[in-house]
Design a protein that fits this description.
5 strands; 5 helices; about 150 residues; about 35% helix
Length: about 150
């Protein structure tokens, strides 16, 4: 069975989960969205038969508030795992399948999750995910614009 990854196309934090999934080696489909497409895409997705997917990962995207009742009513709600770091997504904290942490980025949250699922820890991936976080959270200058090998 394969997974579905939904992320965005705007920056490296949105694209990095695709890289991580490839490195994990699981079969998956992915959809890259612009932020304004999330609600429409998820509304349509939730009307489809999702039996081909074991998990549906949504990374670095704020899921509109009106979508959560649709997920909750879905027979496939147990497949959804959402990883985000945007303050505009605070209303989703009460859902057990949502991981929100404003101190991280989507890539680091997803990488941490994948490590619990069997993705091998790797110093290069550790450094990569931290670099993505520094770029996405605008902390690269605070870290002297350098990363230690």
């Amino acid at each position: 069975m394969k997974d579905l990854l939904i992320t965005h196309i705007k920056d490296i934090d949105g694209l990095s989960p695709v890289i991580l999934m490839n490195l994990w080696g699981k079969s998956f489909d992915y959809k890259l969205l612009d932020t304004f497409e999330v609600g429409t895409y998820l509304t349509e997705l939730l009307t489809q038969d999702l039996q081909d997917y074991e998990h549906i990962y949504i990374v670095d995207l704020t899921v509109p508030e009106e979508i959560y009742p649709m997920i909750e009513k879905s027979k496939d709600r147990h497949k959804f795992l959402i990883f985000d770091h945007h303050e505009t997504h605070n209303y989703a904290r009460s859902y057990p399948y949502v991981t929100l942490d404003m101190e991280e980025c989507g890539t680091t949250l997803f990488y941490q999750y994948l490590q619990t699922q069997g993705l091998s820890t790797n110093p290069c991936l550790d450094q990569y995910s931290e670099a993505v976080k520094d770029l996405d959270l605008w902390t690269i200058e605070k870290n002297h614009n350098t990363l230690s090998p």
